[in-house]
Amino acid sequence: MPARELKLEPAVALRVGGATLTERQLEVLRAVYEEGSQNRAAARMGIATPVLNRHLAHIEAKVRTELLVATPRGTTLNEEGERIALEYIALSRRMEHSGGTVVGGTIVSEELLLAALTTADPEGECELIISDDRRNLRDFNAGLMDVVVLDDPQYLFDLEGTRWQEVATDRLLHVDRGPRYAGCVYGAQRIGFRHLESVGAEFRVVRHFRSPEMMAASGLSFFINESLALRRGMRIRSDTDPSRLVHQINAVYRKETNRVRRLVSDMRKIGRRV
Length: 274
Prior knowledge:
Blueprint: E1 14-16, E2 19-21, H1 23-35, H2 38-45, H3 49-63, E3 68-71, E4 74-77, H4 79-96, E5 102-105, H5 110-120, E6 127-130, H6 133-141, E7 147-150, E8 163-175, E9 180-184, H7 189-198, E10 204-209, H8 212-216, E11 222-225, H9 226-231, E12 246-253, H10 258-273
Parallel strand pairs: 5-6, 5-7, 9-10
Antiparallel strand pairs: 1-2, 3-4, 7-12, 8-11, 8-12
Helix pairs in contact: 1-2, 1-4, 2-3, 5-10
């Protein structure tokens, strides 16, 4: 019998709390996250909604953690569910990377990046990964990312052998509900907390959030980027003058290729209009 060539395909699995979620289970979480609706997620996966619900219940039992939350618009992923979905999305995109330019940003810089990539990369050859500053920097330092757009300018002090340019400015809004604070995974949070230290305010960060809306509803004090709050339709009155909490958003890269140069230039142009 002639030997047949075996087809080799990499697949993603993720260990969560000691349990291994399969690629199919991760796709279920991804569909719920990206569609924002269990009905639409089920349709996308070609299964009935009750079947999707059973998948979700099995996943929760497997990781021994609740991953869903009921909202006025229906049941969707909670903080832990979103964290798993975003990690899987980032891993999947890295595996799909075909040698083009990989660009990383956060939900703060996402709209800026989308607009800039539309003009700087009309062929669609760049890969865009949305995560948080810390994770993006880890991949950038490992050579897995070509350009990273940082919310927090203080990370620049930790970088060596890189180039960077300011591409936009933003401001933090401050909601003061007392000394117990929520920390947002995204944005220049350290600038807000250093402001509290500079004015001698007592504070303690008791929890971190990925969802800005859940953070705002937590009853805790918090800082949030003004641009992000506006895009999410969040009406927030700042208890500190936002002009005291202005910060840069910076693009960091090592090799200035033509595409990187165009991308950074377009981000600077768009950032000045934002």
